[in-house]
Amino acid sequence: MPRMTGDELFYKLIEQDFSGETIFLTAFADKNLVQKVMRMGAFDIIDKPINNDILISRLHNACNKIVSARCERKFFESVTKFFDYNSKLNYDLLDYEKRAEYLEALMAMLELKSVNKKN
Predict the structure, then answer these.
(1) CA angle (91 as vertex; 59, 80 as ends), nearest 5
(2) Which domain range does residue 31 map to?
(3) Fewer CB within 10 Å, N or C, the chain?
(4) pLDDT digits (tens, 9 = 90+) for 37-62
(5) Does residue 14 sit within a domain?
């Protein structure tokens, strides 16, 4: 890249709270750099020369992760509105285990509500 390296661009995206997924395409996979960007949230790294099937598969996986996260967030927001839950809880700040815990609880409540409607 002419003005900055891929990892420099990645760091700038992180600073600006980029919410997408990042896939690095590289001919020079430095092990330390790979570990660093993966720890910082890069979705994947693909070595050049690029195999089209691998690229398409990884893009598909990244898209699925984005859609899943959006659906999860939307579900969380909808259910909290449904139950008129007024809290300062910020879903984006929850770690994965807490998110899973909240979603499981919300799903259980919805299942219970569904069972109660049938009876």
Answers:
(1) 115
(2) 1-50
(3) C
(4) 999 999 999 999 999 999 999 999 99
(5) yes
